Amino acid sequence: MEKFLVFLTVVFCILRFTEACPRSLKNVFSPDATVEEPGCYYAEGMFINADSGTSVDILNGDPLKCRQFCKDNGYESNFVIMQQDTCHCNKAFRHHAKRDKSNCDISCLGDSTYKCGGKNHASGYIV
């Protein structure tokens, strides 16, 4: 009976009756659900709202310089995204964009202890 109830819950979620879903399943079936957690992400999965964030190229950038830029420009979120030399403020990733950290294999020029994405990938940091 318990397996049937789990199956029924998944079916409801698939049919978009998300209010019946546990939170973890809601995120899987909601294409607009976003995350702000450290990790490596497929860059095309970045959630970009033109009215809410900004991007800038930072020479010899790293997550700390990116965070300082964001703070200086009025963005309070501690989550920053580095994509090689590009710093993204006040943005997030769609939940399905997270990838294995091995995809983010480019060291940040400002501090090589950090990764600044990889081919078609970006690194997210909480700083």
From TrEMBL:
Residues annotated as signal peptide: 1-20
Q: Name all WSC domain ranges.
A: 34-127
Which parts of the chain span the membrane according to its record?
none
Q: Which InterPro entries match?
A: WSC_carb-bd (IPR002889)
Keyword annotations:
Signal
Q: What is this protein called?
A: WSC domain-containing protein
UniProt organism field: Macrostomum lignano
